[in-house]
Amino acid sequence: MQDHSKAPASWRIALPHSAAAVPVARALVRTALAELEHTTDGDTAELLTAELVANAVEHTSGGTPIELVVELRPTGCQVEVHDPDPAPPADLTRPGIEPPDPWQEHGRGLLLIRALSSSCGHRPTGSGKAVWFRLPAVPAPRCSPE
Fold first, then answer.
1. Which string of DSSP letters, residue by residue, matches 36-75?
2. Helix H or strand E segment including 145
3. 56 with 95: CB under 8 angstroms?
4. What predicted TM-score, i.e. pTM, was given to this entire model?
5. Those residues with Cβ within 8 angstroms of residue 81's Cβ, 6 or more apart along the chain or in another chain
6. Model pLDDT, residue 2
7. How far is CA 132 from CA 102, 103, 118, 142, in A?
8. pLDDT tens profile 25-80
């Protein structure tokens, strides 16, 4: 049985402002969830983290690293990506006027984040903004009495 009274565990890592940041971010989230045997859906956490990091790399100017913050709580996990651009991400918390074209490579990341996370958003930081999502912990299966 897991002890759910533990304080949150968190990781913060600077990532290069390049496409190489995406697999590093996915690996960090996968490792964090596995090390603590956390019950959040790891595949979804990896996918949404990859989308946030890819958006930060693609839509902000390079030069300064982006930062990944992963916080694991008894109730689930929160992932934030910090970037130097203070402008809010388009269409994160409200749907766009037109749905993304399924044949285009771009335009589905924020839709995925809205659809698959329990909540998401953005907030200003001292050096730009943080874009975040939360995923709930999945209840551990109950053991049946013998």
1. TT--B-HHHHHHHHHHHHHHHHHHS-SSS-EEEEEEEETT
2. none
3. no
4. 0.81
5. 25, 49, 52, 53, 55, 56, 66, 67, 68, 69, 130, 131, 132
6. 47
7. 24, 26, 11, 31
8. 999 999 988 877 778 899 999 999 999 999 999 988 877 899 999 999 888 999 99
Residues 104-136 have pLDDT tens digits of 455 567 788 989 999 999 999 999 999 999 999
Dump strand ranges (E) for the chain: 9-15, 66-73, 76-83, 119-125, 128-136
Residues 138, 127: Cα–Cα separation, whole Å: 34
The H or E element spanning position 30 is helix 21-35
Other CB atoms within 10 Å distance of the CB of residue 120: 22
Is residue 37 a contact partner of residue 54, using CB atoms and an 8 Å limit? no
Token digits of residue 123: 């907030």
Tokens at residue 98, please?
């037109």
Tell which residue, 81, 51, 86, has the closest CA to residue 65.
81
Give the 3-state secondary structure of residue 118.
coil
